């Protein structure tokens, strides 16, 4: 009889604990959502919604987080605008900590790679940098709409001529302050004798203002600034790979190549190692 009572008590305890466990495994999503709502910080004063994913990521049936992943993995191509319903998601990403965190990972990996370089020290080792959204940030231009409307070349070129683009920025900082993230890599390369070289889709008539803009942000000492010449009609990949081929033909060794667009780093010769910074605001093929 005593043994029977003991077995009954054990069985009841198991049922009770299993029910509680079952309840717990059935409810994690709601519980986590409640926690997110309670503790999620404001992303940015201009974009005061909470969070940068979750419900916001799929609002209106658009899986914005998945769309951004597709863009960065180069599976989503040839797109002209950010989906209208993803404006808030992309805005939160670009103005919040997530973008800075992702960018910092890229630069940290680039710096780790630099530490492994065995340099000849002959002055022929170079690192190719893109400019827009790689060295300089145009967030002040793009933050109103985040490219949910078609690109306006006239408007953007007028902005470029202001020379007001700022440096790409470090984690936890807005674009108006704090340590600049790509500049860490730039300065490291200068310190070990690798010559930074700019290869940009900006045009030759924008040379003077581009140089002034770089200098205003504390960037100097580069090997060359290569801009698109008048009359070029090919793709960005054809243009940039062609310029890199000229460098290679001149016996330069491209030890690294960094940009925010896949067209910055695709097309032989790409360089010994390439690095892609995040940019879900526009696509250049």
**Helix/strand/pairing class, anyone?**
alpha/beta
Largest sheet: 5 strands, parallel
Low-confidence stretches: 3-60, 170-179
> So what's the overall shape?
globular
> Helical percent range?
40-55%
Spatially, the strands of the biggest sheet line up as: 7-6-3-8-9
How many E-type strands? 9
Rg is 25 Å
Secondary-structure element string? HHEEHHHEEHHEHEHEHEHE
Strand content: 5-15%
Average the pLDDT over all residues and give the rounded result.
Answer: 80
Cα-to-Cα separation, first versus last residue: 81 Å
Number of helices: 11
Explain this structure to me?
- The strands form three sheets. A five-stranded parallel sheet has the order 7-6-3-8-9, sandwiched between helices. A two-stranded antiparallel sheet has the order 1-2.
- Strand 1 (42-44) and strand 2 (47-50) form a beta hairpin.
- The relative contact order is 0.13.
- The protein has eleven helices and nine strands.
- By secondary structure, the protein is α/β, with parallel strands linked by helices.
- It is 44% helix and 14% strand.
- It starts with a helix and ends in a 9-residue tail after the last strand.
- It has helices spanning 2-26, 28-39, 64-72, 87-95, 97-114, 139-142, 153-160, 181-192, 207-216, 236-249, 262-265, and strands at residues 42-44, 47-50, 125-129, 136-137, 166-167, 195-203, 224-228, 253-259, 274-276.
- Helix 4 (87-95) packs across helix 5 and helix 5 packs parallel to helix 8 (181-192).
- The protein is globular, with a radius of gyration of 25 Å.
